[in-house]
């Protein structure tokens, strides 16, 4: 029986593990299917983590976290958790891919979110064959070629800027004429001679051949079409929350969720189920920032420690 | 404990020609690739003598990446006796990759 199971190895999961183990919990396992670090490891840069003045890639930024967070005995298991359920004695069962399972007195869920698809015709067909959601991973394959960045938020604009260093031209395609991204980023994009803004359009379809994507057709509000012939399209249209492991066999969720599928927590990261905590992007009203996820994780770790010591 | 095989333009074809091979196309700057690196290491141990677990550094072996139409990493290709039989794009779990290899053995 584990004292605490942490599901997810991003900033929230690592911080929860650090605080729980440093606080004295002995048997704490973080389930993460590969190397810890989370979603931020796909970002080209992080410049808003307080105390870290040097601008680093997400990968370099997260590298020391694992080492530090494992220092007090946090164990990392590379199994994938498929479901969390509550037992009649108040403990939890974590079902693992491959049929095994693990029992725990308390659980911190911090499975984060994954990039959303834009849902246009041909997107699924050419995903990985020209359509990507990771500029730092795949920008390299479009060196000195033209690409599209799709979206209007911080991620879309920051990654468009990143791509402009590698590619000959970046079409920033957005369905409105204003951006949700921070004003300083919008300014940098507008002043970048390699970025062309293609605004007030939606993507009608992607086209290509056996070798992969050859371009997209966009359509404006009057119905006028434009063919943008590019081998690469990067989609940054938001995130889907990874709440699947909380779904029970009968289709209901283990704990209360909000209308967007995020876990409802209080200020202590407690869910509606005793002993179950949620932290990071998965929880309701998350700011979806590394520093916030880390703060949530620390809170959840402290609360799990308190729960195991006094209730479990 | 087995170690994964590092493939390049000169040893790629001969390595995948016989038996079952998993080939992970990756690069050092790719977060999801680094994420699955320990999984590939473990698979190399688990399937030692049964299947070939291989990696291609797309930064160094661009010709190989182009030959297989790699435009997104990680991309994992599965070969049986030299024939490309399946592929997975993105970071998959160890269980999913192991199941795939077992289904080809």
TrEMBL record, chain B:
Q: Which GO terms describe its biological process?
A: cell redox homeostasis
Disulfide bridge map = 30-33
Under Gene3D superfamilies, the record lists:
Glutaredoxin
Record's Pfam families?
Thioredoxin (PF00085)
Q: Which GO terms describe its cellular component?
A: cytosol
- Site Deprotonates C-terminal active site Cys: list residues: 24
Q: Where is this site: Contributes to redox potential value?
A: 31-32
Looking at the record's lineage, which domain of life comes first?
A: Bacteria
| InterPro entries noted in UniProt | Thioredoxin (IPR005746), Thioredoxin-like_sf (IPR036249), Thioredoxin_CS (IPR017937), Thioredoxin_domain (IPR013766)
- Tell me which residues make up the Thioredoxin domain: 1-105
Family indicated by similarity? Belongs to the thioredoxin family.
The molecule here is called Thioredoxin
**Native species of this protein?**
Sulfurospirillum cavolei
Instruction: Show the taxonomic lineage.
Output: Bacteria, Pseudomonadati, Campylobacterota, Epsilonproteobacteria, Campylobacterales
Recorded name of the encoding gene: trxA
């Amino acid at each position: 029986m584990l004292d605490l199971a942490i599901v997810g190895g991003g900033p929230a999961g690592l911080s929860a593990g650090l605080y729980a183990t440093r606080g004295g919990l002995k048997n704490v396992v973080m389930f993460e299917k590969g190397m810890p670090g989370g979603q931020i490891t796909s970002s080209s840069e992080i410049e808003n983590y307080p105390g870290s003045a040097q601008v680093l890639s997400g990968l370099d930024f997260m590298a020391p976290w694992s080492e530090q967070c494992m220092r007090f005995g946090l164990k990392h298991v590379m199994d994938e958790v498929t479901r969390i359920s509550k037992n009649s004695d108040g403990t939890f069962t974590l079902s693992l891919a491959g049929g095994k399972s693990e029992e725990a007195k308390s659980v911190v869920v911090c499975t984060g979110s994954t990039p959303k698809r834009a849902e246009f015709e041909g997107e699924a067909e050419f995903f990985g064959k020209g359509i990507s959601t990771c500029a730092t991973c795949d920008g390299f394959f479009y060196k000195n070629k033209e690409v599209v960045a799709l979206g209007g938020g911080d991620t879309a604009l920051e990654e468009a800027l990143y791509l402009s260093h590698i590619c000959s031209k970046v079409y920033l395609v957005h369905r409105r004429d204003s951006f949700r991204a921070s004003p300083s980023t919008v300014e940098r994009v507008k002043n970048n001679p390699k970025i062309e803004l293609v605004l007030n359009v939606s993507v009608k379809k992607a086209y290509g051949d056996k070798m992969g994507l050859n371009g997209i057709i966009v359509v404006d509000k009057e119905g006028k079409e434009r063919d943008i012939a590019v081998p690469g399209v990067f989609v940054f249209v938001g995130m889907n929350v990874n709440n699947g492991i909380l779904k029970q066999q009968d289709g209901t969720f283990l704990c209360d969720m909000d209308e967007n599928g995020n876990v409802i927590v209080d200020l202590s990261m407690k869910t509606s189920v005793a002993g179950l905590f949620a932290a990071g992007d998965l929880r309701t009203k998350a700011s979806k920032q590394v520093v916030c996820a880390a703060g949530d994780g620390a809170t959840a770790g402290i609360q799990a420690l308190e729960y195991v010591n006094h209730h479990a | 404990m087995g170690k994964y095989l590092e493939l390049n333009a000169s040893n790629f074809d001969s390595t995948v020609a016989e038996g079952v091979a998993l080939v992970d196309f990756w690069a050092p700057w790719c977060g999801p690739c680094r994420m699955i690196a320990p999984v590939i290491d473990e698979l190399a141990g688990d399937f030692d003598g049964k299947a070939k677990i291989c990696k291609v550094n797309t930064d160094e072996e661009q010709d190989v990446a182009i030959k297989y139409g790699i435009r997104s990493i990680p991309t994992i290709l599965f070969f049986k006796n030299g024939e490309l039989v399946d592929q997975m794009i993105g970071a998959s779990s160890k269980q999913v990759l192991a199941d795939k290899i077992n289904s080809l053995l």
